[in-house]
Amino acid sequence: MRAVSVHRDAIVVTSLLWQTTATALRAGEETMLIDSPYFPDELELLPAVLGQAGFVPTAMLATHADFDHVLGRLAFGELALGVPESTAERLRENPGQAQRALRDEDARSYVSRPRPLSLGQVQSLPVPGRLELGGEELELHPAAGHTADGMAVFAPWLGVLVCGDYLSAVEIPMISEGGSPAGYRATLATLAPLVERAETVVPGHGPTHPRERALALLDEDVAYLDALERGEERHRLPDGRDTVAQREIHTANLRAAGG
Ligand SMILES: [Zn+2]
To answer: Ligand 1 centre from 102 Cα, in Å?
Structure first.
């Protein structure tokens, strides 16, 4: 697990699995934790790693319901998990899905946990909407298309955009169950003006980006969706993302896109 401070009041922790990010944003006396690292030791260390940097989470959000983003309660069991309405709906309609997916992934990699995941109290938040944090306001923007649910969180006073599973330098656009290329495009269109307002963009997986790099990735991802919708099996994936794992995702995307 790696911790990088991107602002005096913003720190990003990156898991060793899939470079999954967790972001702590501070305003006044309050700190919001968004998403989570994966491994049990990372979750166990998270309070100390954040605490050493002066971040003590007082509230928690998940960008979407995929199991690798909702593990925060394994580190901060006393905090409720705030999610967009679309994620609350997905959790309601698929009870136990995140827990099962986590169990299966753990079993694949022989990861054992001290206790199973319980999501605890889940708070459904209106999106688009705003959320007060220590006298400042977080903006919540809809971000579906990767899955059926999702939100991006923008902290204007920090210039930090936490966008969920979009704009990654390590992962191509992934169309998972409930997602669609059209939905993904709509989210990229929502994100574009937010990226323009941001100093730092934190994707769900991989390194954080300055604005210009995020805009370049956005263009690459639109071009990728074009190729996906043309059904191009042998499309050359963007630089840095042309790996075995990403080609497998491309094959799955072609199936999901109806090819
Ligand atoms: Zn993810």
So the answer is: 12
Q: What's the CA-to-centroid distance between 133 and ligand 1, angstroms?
A: 25
Phi and psi torsions of 246, nearest 5°: -75, -30
Give the residue among 162, 76, 58, 55 at the shortest CA–CA distance from 119.
Answer: 76
What does the angle CA 204 – CA 45 – CA 30 come to, to the nearest 5 degrees?
70
- pTM (global) more than 0.90: yes
Q: How much is the pLDDT for 259?
A: 52
User: Ligand 1 centre from 17 Cα, in Å?
Assistant: 10
Confidence class of residue 235 from pLDDT cuts 50, 70 and 90?
A: confident
Gap from CA of 101 to ligand 1 centroid (Å): 12
